[in-house]
Structure formats: structure tokens, C-alpha cells
Amino acid sequence: MKRQKLALLAGSLVAVLALAGCGKASDTATSNSAAPATEVSAAAGDTGSSSSGTAGSSADTAGSSSDTAGASGSAGSGSSAASGGAGGLTKAKKNYTIALVSKGFQHQFWQAVNSGAKEEATKLGVTITFEGPAAETDIDGQLQMVQSAIDRKPDAIGFAALDPKACVPLMDAAKAANIPVVQFDAGCDSEYPKNISKTDSLKAGALAAQHMAKLMGDKGKVGIVAHSQINSTGVERRDGFVNEMKQNHPNIQIADIQYGDGDHLKSADIAKAMIAANRDLTGLYGTNEGSAIGIVNAIKELALPAGKITVVGFDSGQTQIDAIKSGAMAGAITQDPIGIGRSTVESAVEVIEGMPVKKVIDTGSYWYDKSNVDDPKIAAVLYK
């Protein structure tokens, strides 16, 4: 009788342990590349070589990013979403192939997304490829990459849309090929993708406006140098900022909104033109890394005294971090790109294995300035 009870107890323990191994998991990993895609085989335990582009450069840099952990905690004023990939998946059932097609990788943001995706791929034991067009205006080039990914018949595709409408036929093609799609950063106007891992850009734009208003004493005149009027991130970061100003800061006027495609040279020219046309301009907001760096460079080229124009940026990168520490920029909103990469790969594996996924995973946004740039919680979501 004792033996039977012991056998029954042992069997129950095995069943509990087996169920615990089937949960969801959280951290992430990636590899970057223009065309062709860089393959990362997690089975081989590849950690990749470091590939860090110069901040604000519009030239494309292909290659694998180094693995970087990026647990995001809420610090300062930001949304309190956990870092992407917050499930409990510890290992994929097999070495799946996941093709990730990004909006680009000329900015360090994409290098960080790549790093997070690669880290998660290594953890879960899957193989990923990561590619993006040479410029974030190259919609046709990106669509060709998605078609090539479909032709390779991976187990899943991760996609960040440059144009939310142009990608719809390719989502239909992925559906016809029975290849599941998860999205990251910016979505496609298609019902087929299973979910998206991204920053809530409306909330992040509003957060930028709140800090800009406070820095300007709740009055003045602001110009916006945005990176896109098509892509959802550009539209929402702009609209979140504008709506916050209109609704809660009526004494701050939006003087102008122009689009520099995220190119720091083009954005610098736009900023200089805005300053020339609005001599009483007191603030400039750049909606991504290239836009913000362009603004900083414009002010430097015009030799304007520090503080004459309050500059607020978006994303991070060494150049923005240096500008904030020097006082050339008041502060910026950072995302958790590593968390986005992790969450995307984890979601892809979960979808492949028939597990439920959250439709929208907000990986968080955070304000940083000279006072908290070295805070460990902020440092965890900054990329250089």
C-alpha cells in the first residue's frame, strides 16, 4: 500500500513539472542585415558580432548586433509596461525559422531591436533572420523583402510596416501560404497578423509634450520635425504631441510641422528653415533619432545660445545622450527596442505552437533628461 501511494505521489510530481515546462517566456534576441538577411542559429548559440551604426547617419550598416539584455522598468514619467516578451516560454518545441523584416536598420534603434530578437532566439532555441531596406522611405524594397521571406517558407514572419496599406496584399500572400505573421513597431492594415509588439506612440508623443510644456513654462511656440506622415509611428508621435498641447496647454502654439524622413541632414535643413521663418520659436520636437539629431545639428550650425530653443527628442543613441548631457537637448522619450525584439520572437514562437497571444503588447516609453539619464532603470532601455 505504501509503495502504491509513493508511486502515485511521484507520478503527480512528474505531471506538475511537465506542465510547468510548457508555460510562456519573456526575454528576446535578434540579428541585423540589409539584403541579404543575416541568419542567427540559436541552436549554435551564436552571440553575433557588434554592429553599431553612427548615430544620426542615414547610411545603412548591415551585420549582426551584439546581444544586450534590456529589462525595462518604469522610471521617471513613463508608461509602466514591462519589457517585451513577458511570458514564460522557456524553450521552443523545435528549431523554428522566423524571418524578421524591419523598417530599416540605419538607426541604432533597429540595431537594438535586432539585439533583443537575437537574444530571445538564442534563449528559445530558434533561428531568425533580420533584414530591412537601406532607407525607411524604400517601401518597394521592403515589400520585396517580405515577398522573398514568404518564398523561403519560414515557420513565421515578423514584420514592421513602412506603409500600412501597401503591405496588405503580402499579408494575404502569407495567409495563403499558411505562414503566421506577427508585427513589431508599426502595423499593416490587415486582419491577418496575430499581434503587434510596439510602443504606444500616442501616449509617448503626449509624454513628450507634457515635458516640453513644463520646460517652456507652459507658453511659447513649437515646431515639429517628424519622420513620417505615412508610417503609424510618425503619425502617432506627432498626433499625441499635438493633441496634448491643444487640450492641456493652450498657450503653446504649434508653429509648423514638417517631415524629414528620419534623415539627420534633411531634418537639420528643415529645422533651420523653421527657425528662420519663426524668429519667436521657443521649442523644437523631433519624432525619432534622425529628426532629433538634425535639430541639434541645426542649432549648433546657427550658433544659437544654449536654452534659446528648448529641444525635445525621441529614441536614444549616443549622440542624443551626449546632447542631453551637454544641455544641447533638454530631454527625450526612449522606447524599449530590445524588449520589442524579444517580444516579437517570443510571440512568433507562441503563435507557431498554437498558444494564445496578447493582441497588442505595449513595451513602454520613458522620459529621460540630464537628471535621470544615468539611472539604472533608464539605462536599461537606452541604446548607444
Write the layout of secondary structure elements.
Layout: H1 2-20, E1 38-41, E2 97-101, H2 108-124, E3 127-131, H3 139-152, E4 156-159, H4 168-176, E5 181-184, E6 196-198, H5 201-215, E7 220-226, H6 232-248, E8 252-259, H7 264-277, E9 283-286, H8 289-301, E10 310-314, H9 318-326, E11 331-334, H10 337-352, E12 360-362, E13 366-369, H11 376-379
Parallel strand pairs: 2-3, 2-4, 4-5, 5-6, 6-12, 7-8, 7-9, 9-10, 10-11
Antiparallel strand pairs: 1-3, 11-13
Structure description:
This protein has two domains: 25-199 and 336-363, Response regulator (Rossmann fold); 201-334, Rossmann fold (3-Layer(aba) Sandwich), CATH 3.40.50.2300. It contains eleven helices and 13 strands. It has helices at residues 2-20, 108-124, 139-152, 168-176, 201-215, 232-248, 264-277, 289-301, 318-326, 337-352, 376-379; strands at residues 38-41, 97-101, 127-131, 156-159, 181-184, 196-198, 220-226, 252-259, 283-286, 310-314, 331-334, 360-362, 366-369. Helix 2 packs across helix 10 and helix 7 (264-277) packs across helix 8.
